[in-house]
TrEMBL record:
InterPro entries: HAD-like_sf, HAD_sf, Trehalose_PPase. The keyword Hydrolase applies. Removes the phosphate from trehalose 6-phosphate to produce free trehalose. It comes from Corynebacterium atypicum. This is Trehalose 6-phosphate phosphatase. Belongs to the trehalose phosphatase family. Keywords: Hydrolase, Magnesium, Metal-binding.
Length: 253
């Protein structure tokens, strides 16, 4: 696809469409207060508009745990909320095995020890633990904390080096596996996925030949297209919604 505008025109006219967006850094800016992030209203409104169109499925796929995502991301049904990188989906029960819980407990103890005496903290998700070092942003201590977290024994967990977070996951689910399953479930003619972080790269790599990946912000990526930031995401989603409203096939979902 030559440009985001060309991608919007293409996606607007496919018979069935799956729209998937990350939250932090994509629909909302980053903040030192993780519960008070600047949400871009244009992007949220565009997702709601898209979800109301025929043959269009919309989801917000976030690394945040589901109850936290529900608290800060102002999307409602029929937009689907998916948390913990795809491990938590609205209406789907979750359960840890004894082995997964044991490994999480070991990882938690090591991460909590690293955070002791600092402003850093460990985030607890059902299948993940993440050491947040954003409070050290702009200091040499931030990189030292990152390296220390990366050196922790993962006990078989998947380790992701994200934006001011090092995360350990004992779940098999990733954004890539969720997108793969979603493509099988809804069988869309095309899927578009927008994201800004390292965890989103798995989602980009899960896309097929008729799909569109859009990286938000700088950095190497497997996505074919790029938008500069959150405001540009909102504008692009609004453009897609307007075009699809004009061109999408009639009928009901």
């Amino acid at each position: 696809m030559a440009s985001p505008d060309a991608a919007a025109r293409y996606l607007a006219q496919v018979p069935s469409l799956l729209v998937v967006s990350d939250f932090d850094g994509t629909l909302a800016g980053h903040s030192d207060d993780r519960f008070n992030v600047p949400v871009d209203r244009a992007g949220i409104d565009a997702l709601h508009s898209l979800a109301g169109l025929p043959h269009t499925v919309v989801a917000v796929l976030s690394g945040r745990k589901l109850d936290e995502l529900a608290r800060i991301c102002p999307v409602d049904h029929p937009v689907l909320k998916v948390g913990s990188h795809g491990a938590e989906e609205e209406g789907v029960p979750i359960a840890l095995t004894a082995d997964q819980q044991c490994r999480l407990d070991l990882i938690t103890a090591e991460l909590e020890e690293l955070c002791a005496g600092t402003d850093c903290f460990v985030e607890h998700k059902p299948f993940q633990r993440g050491l947040h070092y954003r409070p050290l942003k702009g200091t040499d201590a931030a990189e030292r904390m990152r390296q220390a977290a990366l050196a922790v024994n993962p006990h078989g967990a998947e380790v992701t080096d994200g934006k001011f977070i090092v995360e350990f996951s004992v779940a098999e689910a990733t954004k890539g596996t969720w997108i793969t399953q979603a493509r099988r479930r809804w069988a869309p003619d095309a899927t578009v996925f927008l994201g800004d972080d390292a965890t989103d790269e798995r989602g980009f790599r899960a896309l097929g030949g008729c799909d569109v990946g859009i990286k938000v912000g700088p950095g190497e990526t497997a996505a074919g297209l790029r938008l500069a930031g959150v405001a540009e995401v909102g504008g692009w989603l609004a453009e897609l919604s307007g075009l699809r409203r004009r061109y999408a096939p009639g009928g009901t979902r």
